[in-house]
Amino acid sequence: MIQEYEPEPGEGDAQAISDLPSYEHEFLNAKAFLQMASTNTGDNLYDHLTEVLNKILAERPENIIDFFEEYSRKIKERRFKPMTDHLEDIYVPPGRYKLANKMMPLLRPLPPSEPSTVDPEDLEMADMSKNDLLELLYYFEHCGVGLPRSEMFFIMLSMRKLIHTEPISAIRFWGKIFGTLKDYIVVECELKEEEYIKRNETYQLQQEQQPPPAETPKEILPSDNEMAVALSNIAKQQQMPGEGGGKFPRPLPPVPVIQHEELPEPPPEPAGVGVNKKVYYICNGPGYPWIQLPDITPKQVRVARQIYKSFTGNLDEAICTYPEFPGTEKEYLRSQIGRISAGTHISPLGYYTFGGGMGGEDDEEDEEAEEGAGGESKTSFSVNPKYEPPQLKDLLDGSMSFWVHHGQYILPQGRTSWWNPNPMPEVGDEEMDEEMGEEEEDQGDKAKIERVEPETGPPLLTPLSEDATMEGIPPWSVRSTSNIMENFAIAVVRSNLWPGAYCFSTQGKNFQNVYLGFGLKCLPQNYSLLPLPPVQQEYPPGPEIMEMMDPTGAEEEQWRIDHLPKPKPVLPEGEEAEPEEAEEEEEEDEDED
């Protein structure tokens, strides 16, 4: 017997609910249909209606229903771009537009040089073939340092333009110093010999035209005259009896005289020598004009070692520090560049040599001439033509014996060569004996002054293994770019004393120094300013200038009683006092006998 199927309770209700339309599902289907892209233009109706409605709501015109189609047509025309139109109507930010205007002159070919009658060999120009910054960037990328490729390319173009406008014989990319507002791109240059001679002659002429420094006269200055007159008036007033004066005048101490004499300032090294051997040009970025930094003086180097200040990017910024720096940020930047170059420019052992490097008699004579009569260290070197690059394992040695300094050491005086503040006069032995016999004391004092110990430093091409550590920090770190492909690995040396200084070497054949940092030396501890000098003593301590306690009333009364005149002795009646003068005369007669 077939029985009718009876649904269970609740089953019919679920089936009835499933038959009802789902508005959310229908909405998603409709939106997907409107977003179907056209096969011709790639647009869809959903985006088109969105743009049309946004434009209508933004403008809110009257009677929009009458020209709704016109709005739709304008939206389509704005989106339509024919294949023949290659102009892009896009928004360019002002900074990017300004940078593009600066880059455009670098991309144009250089104008043809004017015809000259000078021999082309005499027209020396810096060799840009050794300044392929893109090749340099390739090695830097292996080392993990460097700048963006586009920036390196434009720096190379800017360097090409610089050598055509300045008398430069050699140029090299030195590095980049980061500032708080702007950065500094630095290139290291060597000028032509004629330019060095011209600069030294100009500097010497300026020194001769300057008036000699006025010596401080021994007499009292006008301001001191007024003080001396005032002090004399006060002394006279104290000596006068009456108002304002006393019975016992007190002499005033004399005006103190300044007896401090500053040490003579060492003269700056001439252009092309020592710390001023190289010339540095800087700019704030690709496309900006190059600015030549001035030569530095010993005092600027000494003060730069005592201060610690970040760069701002403005060359005319004042340096507000203690001790006071003699100059602006331009001179401070040049001082830091000189210090970094002297301490971080290194090369593989044997790459440079003294003399010509051919091993002949001429080289020995050159070395003897360079050594100097006083046994001074050599100051010039050249590339060794017989250079044999060391192996990679030697360059990666932790002792750093296969790397040497080729930058001259800057003495504490602020120069690479020591300047004697008290030179000994060149006189014969007999004349010296006569002078010693005539003025022994004066000559003894002068001998004490003239006995100044000369400052010395490590000579050129000194191995890095002799560098001193700073509170347990090794001065150098070395590593390899690859431990797998040793045949193509690069040795990378990093300075720990000057963070940002790097040097790489490709199996000892090619090497390059670069600096990318903030231009500040590493400080293991926090930087602290130098304390102010102690206040000098104006007067020697004594009762004349020291404050005394006022006496009490009892003490004053006791002093008055002690200083009362002694009473005359009372004589008995009938006796007369003998005159005191007669007794004194008798005593004098006895003394004469």
UniProtKB/TrEMBL annotation:
GO terms for biological process: axoneme assembly; cilium movement involved in cell motility. Pfam families: Radial_spoke. Its main location: cytoplasm. Keywords: Cell projection, Cilium, Cytoplasm, Cytoskeleton. The keyword Cytoplasm applies. The keyword Cytoplasm applies. GO terms for cellular component: radial spoke. Transmembrane segments: none annotated. Residues 360-373, 573-593 have a biased composition (Acidic residues). It is found in: Cytoplasm, Cytoskeleton, Cilium axoneme. Residues 353-386, 552-593 are annotated as: Disordered. PANTHER family: RADIAL SPOKE HEAD 6 HOMOLOG A, RADIAL SPOKEHEAD-RELATED. This is Radial spokehead-like protein. It comes from Callosobruchus maculatus.
